[in-house]
From TrEMBL:
Gene3D superfamilies, sorted: Cyclophilin-like (2.40.100.10), Leucine-rich Repeat Variant (1.25.10.10)
Protein name per its UniProtKB record: peptidylprolyl isomerase
Organism the protein comes from: Hymenobacter sublimis
Lineage: Bacteria, Pseudomonadati, Bacteroidota, Cytophagia, Cytophagales
Documented EC number(s): 5.2.1.8
Domain PPIase cyclophilin-type: 532-649
SUPFAM superfamilies assigned to the protein according to its UniProt record, in alphabetical order: ARM repeat (SSF48371), Cyclophilin-like (SSF50891)
Pfam families: HEAT_2 (PF13646), Pro_isomerase (PF00160)
Length: 661
């Protein structure tokens, strides 16, 4: 059975459920024969995938009319990555007329990915006529990506005949979620989402509705506080509880919410819910939640402790800085400690100079470049530390990450309301020095600050000549992010429209089909870290170009000795950067591969600076993150070691990455 057949079987068995993790091939035992992937023996599938990689919609359209459902389905899925409106009408035809449900499902997915408003009517009409429940769910979700404000009513009110159909309920929830991400909502839609998050609905509906309530901007959930509070405490699935807990931030004025968030931060058994509770707390509820946040600083999970420190940094006011300094000095986790030191400096207390001195002493004493970076980040809360941070930023021969954090700290302190006006010329000189430093991270960060209208540096740096000089020294596509930042600032100073970024074409790095043909459909990879091993299953049939690149880099030992440079609580752990700070890249770009897989817990995606700019950096999700669906390539899935992923922190080492059986 092929990988796609397995996924189709799973979908049929689930009937309507949202898959929390990407569909994954069956696990191969050490004695099983190696199962080659679908591309190894099928040149037609390779041609379809090549046309997808080259973004040739016209070449894909004829495959939609092939007699073989396999090729029609593959072409529709390929068009989900190409995202050309040229395909809208042919995809609607497949959705209406194809006899194979899996082809119709792929067509609906591709229509949603294309997000063409002209597909709205065709999708809406299909809701009542589609006989397959799974396809209907896809149609409703796609409608959410395409609908207008006027068409939102179709998503909100289901046909009476479908009111109890679980697949339809799931599709409605996901459709309202996708519409909400686009800023399309209404009182009726919010009310319906609150109903869908309730007990008795399928977990897929609850997850989608919870995320919609958490991520849709501008909605007030105060009147639903009691209902949402019950879900946050009682739902059986941690991801639903976590998202609903996050949504409670939009009901913050309800008197029961602060106490509830404090309780969840203390007692929920899942660390991701505790993180959401801390993040949902705000300055208005500071007093009733303060003690719970204080206790969370010593939570056994570092992500929770960090979220508590970030709460104090963001929301504490009129607190004695010495209180935070004393607590920070007793903490063992350096990232939590540095964040609490930032909170101490943020208070502008009489002990400011002493606290600043303590942070600077820690900076001098620690050998860890990531801790040094976070201590510079803490000093970014105190404009009086400008000279110290500037010296640290431009010290020759130091690890790259220190300069990156240092420039970010200089920019952060310049945005503080207490930054002295008399120091703006010094800031301008530091930013100019950063642009000319030849360090892509320092260059990009400095250029971004120069175009910040709040800093108003145009009078001090009126000429873009030095920016043009720096830009022309960059190498594309490797230095794309720095190039983009410099070019945007050049356009800003010259009062010109934004310049289109020069995204590399497929011809510069085509899919290595010879390599792809050697990768088993169930190939596993061991990521051996300083915290333990994480085992991935590569999704070669969904992302052949991305997997081929990852396998080639792995065989070269590219990832050995790298670090996790970005860890965001209850979101992602990211690594693979050759610089160690997130600004590094390979010498080539990959094209985005948006297969019909979802960002559930343990999905492994490629970082990018926009569509078709993927490279060597990758991330692992801590929990379902559906706002990433269809926007970032998923090329692997964690099959073992999620407990390790939950413990990863910035600076943790990737000892080696290796292919295993």
């Amino acid at each position: 059975m092929t990988y796609f057949a397995l996924c189709r079987a799973a979908a049929a068995a689930a009937a309507s459920g949202y898959l929390f993790t990407a569909c994954a091939p069956h696990t191969l035992s050490s004695t099983s024969p190696v199962a080659l992937n679908q591309f190894a023996a099928d040149s037609v599938l390779r041609r379809i995938a090549t046309a997808q990689d080259e973004r040739r919609a016209a070449a894909l359209l004829p495959y939609l009319n092939r007699p073989e459902a396999t090729y029609r389905r593959a072409a529709a899925e390929a068009l989900a990555s190409v995202q050309s409106k040229e395909a809208t009408s042919p995809l609607l035809t497949r959705l209406r007329e194809d006899a194979d449900a899996t082809v119709r499902r792929a067509a609906a997915y591709a229509l949603g990915q294309t997000a063409d408003s002209t597909a709205e009517a065709g999708l809406a009409q299909r809701i009542s006529t589609e006989p397959d429940g799974v396809v209907r769910r896809y149609v409703l979700e796609a409608l959410g990506r395409c609908t207008s404000r006027a068409g939102l009513l179709t998503l909100t009110r289901l046909p009476p005949a479908l009111a109890t159909d679980t697949a339809t309920l799931s599709g409605q929830a996901w459709g309202l979620y996708r519409a909400g991400l686009r800023g399309l909502t209404s009182e009726a839609a919010v009310s319906r989402l609150v109903q869908l998050v309730g007990r008795g609905n399928p977990v897929s509906s609850r997850l989608a509705a919870a995320n919609a309530l958490a991520r849709t901007r501008g909605i007030n959930l105060t009147s639903y506080a009691a209902t949402l509070g019950t879900v946050a405490q009682q739902d059986a699935h941690y991801a639903v509880r976590s998202a609903v807990t996050a949504a409670l931030s939009k009901a913050a004025t309800a008197p029961t919410v602060p106490v509830l968030l404090a309780t969840l931060a203390r007692r929920d058994p899942d660390y991701r819910v505790r993180v959401s509770a801390l993040r949902a707390m705000n300055a208005q509820m500071y007093a009733p939640v303060k003690e719970a946040a204080w206790q969370a600083l010593t939570d056994s999970n570092a992500q929770v402790a960090l979220s508590a420190a970030e709460f104090f940094l963001t929301h504490a006011t009129n607190e004695p800085g010495s209180m935070f300094l004393g607590k920070a000095n007793r903490l063992e986790q350096w990232r939590v400690r540095a964040t609490l030191l930032a909170a101490a400096l943020h208070q502008s207390s009489p002990e400011q100079a002493a606290i600043r001195g303590a942070v600077q002493e820690r900076y001098a004493a620690t050998p860890d470049p990531y801790e040094k970076g976070y201590l510079l980040k803490a000093l970014g809360e105190d404009p009086a530390a400008f000279d110290f941070v500037q010296r640290a930023t431009f010290t020759p021969g130091q690890p790259l990450v220190v300069g990156t954090y240092g420039m970010e700290a200089l920019v952060a302190m310049s945005r503080q309301p207490t930054f002295p006006a008399g120091r703006y010329p010094d800031l301008a000189l530091a930013l100019r020095r950063g642009v000319l430093s030849r360090d892509v991270a320092v260059m990009g960060t400095a250029a971004e600050a120069i175009r910040d209208p709040k800093l108003n540096l145009r009078k001090l740096l009126p000429s873009p000549d030095f920016l043009i000089q720096a830009r022309d020294q960059l190498t594309l596509p490797r230095d794309l992010e720095a190039w983009q930042s410099l070019q945007q600032t050049i356009d800003f100073l010259q009062n010109q429209p934004a310049t289109t970024a020069p995204v590399a074409k497929a011809a510069t790095h085509p899919i290595d089909w010879a390599l792809v043909s050697t990768i088993p459909a169930g190939q596993r990879v061991a990521v051996r870290t300083s915290k333990g091993d994480v085992v991935l299953r590569l999704l070669v049939e969904q992302a052949p170009g991305s997997v081929a690149s990852f396998v080639e880099l792995t065989r070269r030992g590219f990832y050995n000795g790298k670090n996790f440079h970005r860890v965001v609580p209850n979101f992602v752990a990211q690594g693979g950067c050759p610089r160690g700070d997130g600004w590094g890249s390979s010498d080539y770009n990959l094209r985005s591969e948006f297969a019909d897989v979802r960002y559930g817990e343990g999905a492994v995606g490629l970082a990018s600076a926009g569509k078709d700019t993927e490279s060597c950096q990758w991330f692992i999700t801590h929990a379902p993150t559906p706002h990433l669906d269809g926007r970032y390539t998923i090329f692997a899935q964690v099959v073992q070691g999620m407990d390790v992923v939950s413990r990863l922190d910035i600076g943790d080492r990737i000892d080696r990455v290796e292919l295993i059986k």
